[in-house]
Design a protein that fits this description.
Blueprint lengths: L11 E4 L9 H16 L3 E6 L9 H13 L9 E2 L4 H13 L3 E4 L3 H12 L7 E2 L2 E2 L10 H9 L5 E4 L1 H8 L3 E4 L3 E4 L9 E3 L7 H11 L4 E5 L6 H11 L5 E5 L19 H6 L7 H15 L3
Parallel strand pairs: 1-2, 2-3, 11-12
Antiparallel strand pairs: 4-7, 5-6, 7-10, 8-9
Bound molecules: glutamic acid.
Glutamic acid (GLU) binds next to loops.
């Protein structure tokens, strides 16, 4: 495996939004946080548009992101990368995992999976939960090679899943470093046989983010704390694909006045609304820090 980025290499951070809505104060905090670290380390700041979900991502939201970030005064390396244009790169990574015998096709629909989970619920030892909900119950893992080949030849839509047991034994024990929470032992097995290529698009968030962070030479992944647990998966994929290992810094999530995570429906928190209301962009960092302080006070920290 490649060594982690050496101490002498320059810091490279990124902001990797999905263009599925308008940016809000929480996004501004993430982007400014990554940008400030890059600038103070005389390093690189990278913008990456994570638009692999055709149902949710829209070009007008990408335009909105670029507009908002420029309004904030951020500068990033051009041209920025769009994940929707990188499917052949993800296909190479999938081929590598497939050659290592770590993938299997999954033909299940959501309802097949739900039915199997409900059935297994009658025998609790068969039903397992992970951080993202019930684990895939392994239906298609049992298929014979000839059955798989037949269904693929019949053009039956299928996803590709990681054989987690095989992947974990191939990779061995892995650790990763989070700047706020310290050294972590990777526990990707918590997630079971995750999808790495979806039926409708031949990649997934986990695969694309891991491949791209390495391809772009990211040394410090900064992102919201909601993505802390999935780092276990990303660390595993780095090991399997022999990619460089960055550090991570998972940041506090901003919440609305009701205490729930900022979302698209929190219109008043969107950068566009703030811009239209005449907010000074230089104030946004301080506003996000004040919001975090308010949250900490409410949480009794
Ligand atoms: N694209 C993801 C999002 O908008 C963030 C991915 C990441 O930072 O790893 O939630």
């Amino acid at each position: 495996m490649n060594a982690s980025a050496t101490a002498s290499s320059k810091i490279a951070t990124r902001f990797a939004p999905s263009p599925s809505g308008l940016l809000h104060l929480g996004h501004a905090y993430s982007a400014l946080f990554a940008h400030r670290l890059a600038v103070s380390g005389e390093g690189r700041f990278i913008l990456r548009i994570e638009d692999i979900d055709p149902g949710r991502c829209k070009p007008e939201f990408e335009d909105g992101i670029v507009e908002d970030l420029a309004w904030l005064g951020l500068e990033w390396e051009e041209p920025f990368l769009r994940q929707s244009e990188r499917l052949p790169i993800y296909a190479d990574a999938l081929a590598q995992l497939d050659t290592a015998g770590l993938l299997y096709p999954c033909f299940c629909t959501r309802s097949d999976i739900a039915a199997e989970i409900a059935r297994a619920g009658a025998a609790p030892h068969l039903s397992h939960h992970g951080p993202d909900g019930p684990l895939y119950p392994g239906i298609c893992k049992q298929l014979s090679a000839s059955e798989r080949a037949r269904r693929i030849a019949d053009n039956e839509p299928h996803a590709l899943r990681l054989d987690m047991d095989a992947a974990v034994s191939a990779a061995g024990t892995l650790t990763w470093h989070d700047r706020t929470r310290g050294e972590q032992t990777a526990q990707p097995e918590l997630f079971g046989d995750i999808v790495l290529a979806r039926k409708e698009v031949a990649t997934s968030y986990h695969l694309a983010v891991t491949v791209d962070d390495a391809a772009q030479g990211i040394t410090l992944v900064t992102r919201g704390d909601d993505l802390f647990a999935v780092t276990h998966i990303h660390r595993l994929l780095q090991a399997l694909l022999n990619l460089d290992v960055p550090e991570w810094h998972h940041t506090v999530l901003l919440v609305n006045n009701k205490g729930s995570r900022l979302a698209k429906r929190d219109k008043a928190f969107t950068l566009r609304a703030m811009r239209e209301a005449g907010t000074d962009p230089e104030e946004i960092w301080a506003m996000s820090i004040r919001q975090i302080a308010r949250q900490a006070a409410t949480d009794g920290i």
